[in-house]
Amino acid sequence: MDENKRKNIQTIMNILNVIGLIITILMVVWGAKAGLFTNPEKMYAYITNLGIWGPLVFIIIQIAQTIVPVMPGSITIPIGILAFGPWWGFILNLIPIYFGSIVNFWIARRFGKPTVRAIVGDKSYYSMINLFERKNIGNRLFTLLMFVPFSPADLLCYGAGFTNMTNKYFTYSLLIGKPVSLAFYAFGTGYFLTWIMHNFA
After folding, report:
1. CA 48-64-192 angle, 5° bins
2. Number of domains, the chain
């Protein structure tokens, strides 16, 4: 492949990435205005009423909340379990979180700290910087934290993009660690919410 062709392909890929990011942000704005990101009951009712389109909408919501943290995963992940059942809920949580986490890493590496700071806000940004620059958590601790439920995984993926961590190492850590933490988190909180609904609803 000659240099001009390579540059043209890279330009097209960059444009597609930007379009995807814009669409994601628009989805977040729409969801926020509709109350889906602040009211778990509205989100659950909305998804379950969509029928066959529910899984697609849920995937888009999960990608959006992974990249732009307007709603914690502690709300959206259990909703997936309740709406689609334990196994499908787990898969429909895992796929968009994988994708969103990779996008986070790419945004940090491609656009740098000012962009990430604008996305996550000052408080989360400085917490992340404290982990990676002052405490220097390192590659191995990053991998370990991918296994830990309730760790700030979205911020960790942004922060990893600022380091010299290779794409291969990041992807490997994400692939092996995230299913473990997500399973514990999703099934644990999902069953807890089911118990709450059955006993107090």
Report:
1. 50
2. 1
